[in-house]
Amino acid sequence: MTALWTALRNSDVVELNHLYQPLMPVWPTHPAFLLGENESYAGGDGNYNCQLVMGDHCGTHVDSPSHFIPDGKTIEQVDVRQLIGRGVLIDVRHVAARATFGVEEIGRWEREHGAIGEDDIVIFHTGWDAKWARRPDQGAFLSDWPGLSAEGAASLIAKGVNVFGTDALSLDAFGSETNPVHQLLLGNDKLIIENLANLARLPPCFTFIALPLRIEKGSASPVRAIALLTR
């Protein structure tokens, strides 16, 4: 029995995805999520299947380097092993709207829980996952979130971190016009996961799994993200 299977059998699973459903919030310039009934029992088709329309950054998703880097890897070129590993949750819910967090919060976490190591998956809990709401009530989720600083991102790159996550719509703070964290992380072949959910249910460390779809030339992909908590 593999170590991963053993971990699955001996762990509780926490769903880290928001539900994909009509009227869900998306980045204002991105396509809406649409679900249509293609065949149905009621229609006499003998089966049920749906047609989906959405952008590759819809809902809980992972950005590939190509999202901001012209010659960066597209999503099907990403090594999915990077998205399986020890998750590190850093609570930044105290940070003011539109502000940045980073070196100070990372240092505080390490003093309390030990060093962040190479290949750890570092996730920042801003509290914005609790603001998630469908149209027309999506305004609070779509505005004012805090974000990671470029200095904080650089310090984690130096530690060997390859995957960075947030429960907000973007890892850069709301209103950023230059997106320095996206530029820095994706420019260094790192990955960014956005719109994570249920982070209040996580301890400081856990097992993280999030696998993207294999989309040719995709700039991102929806993922099914979970945390495994040892019983």
UniProtKB/TrEMBL annotation:
User: What organism does the record attribute this protein to?
Assistant: Pantoea latae
Q: Share an example GO biological-process annotation for this protein.
A: L-tryptophan catabolic process to kynurenine
PANTHER family recorded: CYCLASE-LIKE PROTEIN 2
Q: What name does the UniProt record give this protein?
A: Cyclase
Its domain of life reads Bacteria
GO MF entries: arylformamidase activity
Record's InterPro entries?
Answer: KFase/CYL, KFase_sf
Check the record and name the Pfam families matching this protein. Cyclase
